[in-house]
Amino acid sequence: MAHDHGHDHEHCDHDHSHADHHGGPSLTAVLEELGPCKKLLKVEVPSDEVRKEVNDRLRHLSKTVHLKGFRPGKAPRKRIEKLYGSAVRNDARDHLLRQTYMRAIQENVGETQLLGEGTIENVAFSVEDGLKYEVTLHTRPEFELPEYKGLEIEIEKVAVDEKEVDQALDQFRAQKGELKPVEGDDAVVEGEDQLSVDVQVWLSDEYEAFSQNEEVEGEEGNLKPLKEEAGLPVQLPHDRLGNFLVEDLADSLSGLKIGEWGEAETELPVDFEVVEGRGEPAVLRIQVKSIKRLFLPELTEEWVKEAGYDTVNDLRREIREELQQRLDHMRRGVIEERLVAKLREEVGEFALPSDMVEQEVAQAKQRKTFELMYMEKLGKDEAEAKVAEEAEQLENEVAEALRAFFVLDEIARREELRVAEADVNTRIALMAAQRGTDPATMRAELQKHKVLPQLYHDILDEKTRALLREHATVNEVEDE
């Protein structure tokens, strides 16, 4: 359970002495604060408990051990101690650790407050001085959870309009469309054509010299492109041309006829195969070799019947319903985000486990670096430098996400929300259907990559957000 984080930590040290009322050895425990969400539990088991444990084990051993020259149970105690004393003491120590570790935590911290496993350190054990050890514990953040049922928020009123239905209808027709070559003298590139092109890659300054001399026959000298490629496919309006990302590629090529050249500026990737071009500004000289265009079927009652619908109006109605479902799903997500944000605002700031923050920040930086390298084609050093510049923003985002996680987790605990195996099976079956595989294979893959715990967490998170939404008052307002 969460508590007010504003209390005075100077009064947090506790000294507990426990008799044998748990059926286990007596122990003394002292709890110290090491910092936010980090505690040190010092545990002592008195020497008489240790002596009793060691003696009981030696007594049991003397009855069962077979020593040469002695009948069972008749071997001298000192002889047994000499031969087995060290092993017996180790076993006694481990047994007492197991017996007292969780009990000390339950009685001084509360098992439900723990985050992960504690770390046992500084173990000292002897029959004369007893057992002493320390446990470093990470605990849940402390905060005051306000009333979370009946939150009130505003959301903009949204509805599916006919323009969106028309666009979705065009997309549906496009799925049934036919890709045909566009030929003849009047054939020019349009914004959504599929092209085959030849490309010359030029360094920007060399291309400038080349293009100025181009008019004068034979005076190009030794100017040559860095690289030439033939027959590259291009799907407009996308900006990708082979390995190059070209801003406004469709604008550069629109209006060209087959055989004509266009040009576009880009920056060569840092791993470009021609060394002198790496990371340099470049011009791509592009010749259109062929044009294909998607021709949509005419929207007639006859065609609609062939596509499996009774009338054009039936098709429009079904599309509208599907768009409404998507809109409702998106709206639920927006409502839940706003409820969590409102709740976070009411809870305010609270200290987080520093180790967890460090771990999450490191992972966020890793993800961001990977994204910059593979999505924006930056080099490793450049990507890491950019991430370093954005470090403060990343850290704030991670801290905010963790606080939201702990607030929602506390609500789930109070409401005793659970993830049933049926919930997990349903989710895995859905994921399998999307991937075109069977649930057993999907589950095996999730287990292999150790992401099943994350799946459980995601489902619990969804249930908690849904609970907030179901108990909230949502006022719709006109979008300005």
Explain this structure.
The protein has 480 residues and is α+β, with helices and mostly antiparallel strands. The protein has three domains: 9-138, Trigger factor ribosome-binding domain (Alpha-Beta Plaits), CATH 3.30.70; 178-295, Chitinase A, domain 3 (Roll); 312-477, Trigger factor, C-terminal domain (Trigger factor, domain 2, Orthogonal Bundle). It has helices spanning 47-64, 77-108, 162-175, 204-213, 249-253, 301-306, 312-347, 354-375, 380-389, 391-414, 421-435, 439-448, 452-470; strands spanning 14-18, 27-35, 38-45, 119-126, 130-138, 152-156, 178-181, 194-203, 227-235, 240-241, 244-245, 261-267, 281-295, 473-477. A five-stranded antiparallel beta sheet has the order 1-2-3-5-4. Strand 4 and strand 5 (130-138) form a beta hairpin. The longest helix is centred in the last third of the chain and has 36 residues, at 312-347. It is elongated. It starts with 13 loop residues before the first strand and ends with a strand.
Estimate the mean pLDDT confidence.
86
Number of strands: 14
Please tell me how large the radius of gyration is. 35 Å
Which architecture of the largest domain does the CATH hierarchy give at level 2? Orthogonal Bundle
Tally of distinct domains = 3
CATH superfamily of the largest domain: Trigger factor, C-terminal domain
Please report the first level of CATH classification, the CATH class of the largest domain: Mainly Alpha
Shape: elongated
Alpha carbon gap, first and last residue: 42 Å
**Oligomeric description of these chains:** single chain
- Relative helix content: 40-55%
| CATH fold description of the largest domain | Trigger factor, domain 2
Secondary structural class: alpha+beta
Neighbour order of strands in the largest sheet: 1-2-3-5-4
